[in-house]
Amino acid sequence: MKADIIKLLVAIGLSEARGKRHLRDQTNVKDIAHAEDVVFWMRDLQMGSMPPKTNRPTRRPTPLTNRPTPRPTPPPIVIDDSPAPTYSSFTYFPTSGDDAFAGLSDDAIDPDSTFNCPPASFVGCTAPNPNNPVNECPTVGQPCKDGNPGEYCCRDGCPRNYCTAKEFIGDDEFTTPEPTMMDTPQPTPKPAPSPTFPCNLTPNSRRTQLTNIIASASSQADLNDNTSAQNLALNWLIEEDLAQLCPSTNTDERDAIIQRYVLALFYYSTNGNNPVNNPTWKECTAPKAYTQAGVNAANRNCDLTTTNSTQIFPDDVRGRNAWLGPDSECTWGGVSCYPDSSSSAGKINAIEFENVGIQGTIPDEIEQLESMRWFSSERGDLTGPIPSTIGNLQSLLLLDMDFNKLSGPLPDSMWSLTQLRQLDLNDNELTGTLSESIGDLSELRFFQIDNNVLSGTIPNGLGDAVNFGLIGLSGNDFIGDMPNSVCNLRPSPLQTLVVDCSVGCAIPDCCTSCVP
Fold it and tell me: Is the Cα torsion angle 433, 436, 437, 439 positive or negative in sign?
């Protein structure tokens, strides 16, 4: 088993070395050096570190007791000009038959009345209490003593007598009253259904809460800058992401929100959408329309997946879906996550790109992917410095960003990555010196920083990392001699050591070769 693992890792390193020979136009000596460019990983690398309702009987309504309504004594026929109370509305009662109004007989109706009554078409009676009538009168056409001024008796559809303001035709002693306007009962409006929002939050509330979560990863200034990648990633997460994540106070759920945001930020920072309709990424770009059809079209344009890391982490969750699609970011092309059986399930384990057309910069927020063990972005056009926050990726085993345009010095925080096995930064534009602290990377097997603009002397501390299998330092501006602490690692475990010929290094006792 041990031999199989060694063969697998050596095969990965040899494959990289062969590719690099095609990209470098150097002397035969340099080609020989990089033919030995292999990955020396730890032999026994342990990858896992990573209340019920009660059926009550229906109560029947209590029937009204059928008892006769006492007939009121007819008042004397007089004209009363005193003001009477005005009733602005009536309460309608359903009729249950004429028995409820037995006290009002047809004898009370004057068949010869010339009063102009309205049609008997009421759906209910006008008295609030049928056993104690209000605004009733004994004879049709007579004025109503208890009614409003100018009201007279008429008959309704109950049947019964009631007061209404209609013109009396006949006796001149009666004047035409002004009609009293009565309010028509209005139906109670039904409340409009509440709109349905994601997470049962209003859009503004959801935006505010999600922004507060993301503000723990990115500065508020960057999030507010309409031109920043942080602003683009935040707006995508809130407005366009079909996953529609909900704010949460749960730590794991908040971490998941931040992880998805950081992956979106990586996409925007590396010009995945710039310009939107012609992104620099060669494949796996975001959907042009956030619809099911748009997502399907984008997925068809993604065939990228992890390759080298798959051989080390075969049980990882991975896929070939377009970036910024509705599926888990673990299934986006070139990404893999810890398996479901792991205590770190769902967290990013590997990001692996090679010759995909990535441009732009590595965002500082990469530090949020603290469980990531494999970060490889080779053969692109990444620019700017290596972010100092890279030192917070304490689980990192491999960091490979060769053949880009990275510039600036190597961040001091890099020397705190004590789990690192492979550091591959050749063919960039890195400047400055090589720190003595490189010796703190005691697990480092493979260190290649050829073809940059590093200067100064080679530090003695390089020999403190006693597990080296390959060191490539050529194509820089180093001066002086190779420290004895490094030469003492030859021939085992250090099998390959290549420098510029301007550096004093005995061949083959110390260096295996030099490049003029």
Answer: positive
Q: Which helix (H) or strand (E) covers residue 258, if one does?
A: helix 251-269
Using CB atoms within 10 A of its CB, is residue 35 exposed (0-12), middle (13-18) or buried (19+)?
Answer: middle
Q: Determine contact, residues 468/492, Cβ cutoff 8 Å.
A: no
Cβ-based burial of 407 (10 A; exposed 0-12, middle 13-18, buried ≥19): middle
Instruction: Please check the confidence at residue 454 and state whether its pLDDT lies above 70.
Output: yes
Specify the pLDDT at position 3: 47
Least Cα distance to 372 among 284, 313, 446, 426 occurs for 313
Helices (H) and strands (E) in the chain, counts: 9, 18
Q: 449: closest CA among 466, 465, 467, 433? A: 433
> Is the entire prediction scored with pTM above 0.85?
no
For 128, other C-beta atoms within 10 Å of its C-beta total 14
Give the Cα separation of 307 and 425 in Å (integer): 19
Let me know if 173 is exposed, middle or buried by CB neighbors in 10 A (0-12, 13-18, 19+).
Answer: exposed
Structure tokens at 262: 């950081």
Q: How confident is the model at residue 354 (pLDDT cuts 50, 70, 90)?
A: very high
Residue 196's pLDDT band (boundaries 50, 70, 90)?
A: confident
Task: Supply 406's token pair.
Answer: 């990275």
363-380 CB burial, b ≥16 within 10 A, e <16: bbbbbbbbbbbbbbbbbb
Q: Give the Cα separation of 387 and 372 in Å (integer).
A: 16
Residues in Cβ contact with 205 at an 8 Å cutoff, skipping those fewer than 6 apart: none
Percent of the chain, pLDDT > 70?
Answer: 62
Question: For residue range 224-260, what is the model confidence (pLDDT) as tens digits?
Answer: 999 999 999 999 999 999 999 999 999 999 999 999 9
